[in-house]
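Figure 2 data, in text form.
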Amino acid sequence: MKPKVLIGIPVSDMHAYAIGEFIESLNKIEYLNFDVLIVENSTNEEFYKFLKEKYPELNIIRKYSEVEVIREKVVKCKNFMRERALKGKYDYFLSLDPDVLVPSSIIERLLSPGKHFIAGVYLGYPHNEGFNPTRNNIANIGGGKATIVTPIVWVNHPKNKDKCRYLRIEELKPKRIIEAFLVGGGCIMLSREILEKIEFRYEEGNTNWDDFWLCKDARGLGYKVYADTGVMCKHLIINREWEWRKVKNQ
């Protein structure tokens, strides 16, 4: 029998603009032994009611709406899903963000290398640090406007093992599995072995999100973090009407 996989997604009305395309991509996944768990955590219940009515076939639970700090809310949702994966005797947990559209072969592709920690790749806006743009990182997004995007994957700096840099777009080819220093949390497959040893977390006073600490903790236990550059996901950021840097209570 194929490994049993739980797909977990924390979601709120912040990503209402993306949810239709996201659910459509979920429904196209070609794998026979997986379940989906969505944890809705908006401050008010309207989005939860919308989801339950629109997608009655999905397992949607409302929790942690009272938590004010967004990173804490996301961590609580992911740890709830982690517990469900462990208690449900799942072999793997696929953690997705609700604005990341995955290919239909996502589960097969991430399982096939047999890694404990492996991520799909998507593009996003870079932070100021650790990024050297090239002409391939300039993307036209309409109306003549240009922006800078990069794969949300960090690799070790070739001259300093204690530093990292963004993977450049031209480095996505040839399609292959690479060892990474850090990957974005939008599409990560974790084995049961890792789930049993690591909880999702964040640290107050530190701006890093749970994906940073997940990668750090996994590496600290001797696991390697991998990304498959052949598993490209679509990140729905162009039509987003808000910017993370302007969002309060992170």
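Caption note: The first strand starts at residue 5 and ends at 11.
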